[in-house]
Design a protein that fits this description.
Blueprint (H helix, E strand, L loop, with lengths): L1 H20 L3 H14 L4 H13 L3 H14 L4 H13 L3 H14 L4 H13 L3 H12 L4 H19 L1 H14 L4 H13 L3 H13 L4 H15 L3 E2 L3 H11 L5 E5 L5 H10 L3 E5 L29 E5 L2 H10 L6 E6 L4 H11 L8 E4 L12 H12 L1 E9 L4 E9 L4 E2 L1
Length: 419
């Protein structure tokens, strides 16, 4: 009888996995739940049910199921990596690192863990460790994995070694998987940056042929004139922030909007040479964003640790920013990192900051291009503000990899535009 029950459980799991592979997420989730009704500690069913919840946008539920899978099988690698990846996507990089390292202790050559941990350490401002992980991943990667690792690695290489080395890494990515869309866009951007327009067009033609690439192609249209005008092609978010601060030469306020767990704000504070201010609700996005429910990216209301010289302001930007500005009268914006994602949030920031934005103010945007709907988010908020307050701005640097743009305000009150 016990053998028959086990066989039924295996059959149910196989049926659920087939539904999952076929893209029927609801049927797969129902199948995994049926397995768990018989065996609540089945680690595979727990793991895969967690994945269905993540695919359905229920990140809190996904995390709970994946944590149960890890508890059911503490030495299991797949669930541990999936949990780490979810934590990483939510910005909880320290927790992600702990789970990746536990997976790697069990499976030292697990390419997904090595690659993803490399990305996490990149965002944690630990580039040397990240490069070592990418190199180890390449030693064990198959073709699809090599494409992804080379793509991720190229951003650090661009920042540390320059465009030629980054282009070599991107071409390795495309040699492994010619249809890698983000690598193809980056190859086009690198060609644009060195004035090789025919090469850029060839890459964009191949990107267009891959289908469903409109946000990337539209981003390329915006990138082309700015790269031709000398905008710096940037790699990682952290390097982009360092680049922006180096060009923010005014005396004034240094601000970040969208702190979450504080990784970028700590990087800003380490480079700013002055006090900085960070603003966030710490309860996640206040509204829906491209299929994501309100509350995404919450820290559960917990404020992250910050070094001396950093002041955190918890609450909606429109409610906390005016008081902070009133406490610092007459100080212009030296630098602001606008990582708001939502149009309304970015628009609120720029509206309240507008009286303090002056020629020489530098603004960085973290979700400026590439995303589906990018032209309706931070991009539109900036252009609407530029028109309203008659800002003329220069694009100093762009990162297709990080979706980042760095802009300097050159004039206020004249003819508006982005030069």
């Amino acid at each position: 009888m016990r053998s028959e029950t086990i066989n039924q459980g295996v059959d149910r799991l196989d049926t659920a996995l087939r539904a999952h592979r076929d893209g029927d997420i609801a049927a797969a989730a129902a199948g995994y739940r049926a397995v768990l009704a018989e065996n609540p500690a089945d680690p595979d069913a727990l793991n895969f049910l967690g994945l269905t919840q993540r695919q359905s946008g229920h990140v809190g539920s996904a995390r709970a199921w994946l944590e149960r899978a890890c508890h059911a099988c503490p030495e299991g690698v797949p669930a541990r990596v999936n949990l780490a990846t979810l934590c990483q996507d939510l910005g909880d990089l320290e927790t992600a690192e702990r789970h990746y390292r536990r997976a790697l202790a069990r499976a030292p050559n697990a390419v997904a863990a090595l690659n993803n941990l490399g990305n996490a350490l990149t965002d944690m401002d630990r580039p040397v460790e990240a490069l070592a992980l990418f190199d180890k991943a390449l030693a064990h990667a198959g073709a699809d994995e090599r494409a992804e690792v080379h793509y991720n690695r190229h951003a650090l290489v661009l920042d540390r070694e320059g465009p030629a080395a980054a282009e070599a890494a991107i071409m390795e990515s495309l040699a492994a998987v010619p249809t890698h869309r983000l690598a193809r866009l980056q190859a086009a951007a690198l060609a644009m940056a060195r004035g090789a327009q025919a090469e850029a067009e060839e890459h964009l033609s191949r990107l267009a042929a891959s289908g469903d690439a409109a946000p990337l192609l539209d981003s390329a249209v915006w990138l082309r004139p700015h790269l031709a005008a000398g905008a710096r092609l940037l790699g990682t978010t952290i390097a982009g922030l360092a680049f922006a601060l180096d060009r923010a030469r005014l005396s004034g306020l240094v601000l970040e909007f969208g702190v979450r767990f504080g990784h970028s704000l700590r990087a800003i504070a380490a480079r700013a040479g002055q006090p900085v201010h960070g603003f966030d609700t710490f309860t996640g996005l206040p509204g829906a964003w491209h299929g994501h429910a309100p509350g995404l990216y919450s820290t559960g209301g917990r404020l992250p640790w910050m070094p001396d010289g950093v002041t955190l302001h918890a609450g909606l930007f429109a409610e906390t920013l005016p008081g902070m500005l009133a406490a610092h009268p007459d100080q212009p914006v030296r630098f602001a990192n606008v990582d708001c994602d939502l149009y309304d949030s970015a628009a609120d920031v720029l509206r309240v900051l507008a009286p303090r934005v002056v020629p020489g103010s530098v603004l960085a945007f973290d979700e400026f291009l590439i995303n589906p709907g990018w032209q309706e988010d931070e991009f539109r908020a900036f252009h609407d503000a530029a028109a309203r307050y008659r800002w003329r701005a220069s694009v100093l640097g762009v990162s297709p990899f990080a979706k980042q743009a760095v802009l300097r305000i050159d004039a206020v009150g004249g003819a508006a535009g982005v030069g």
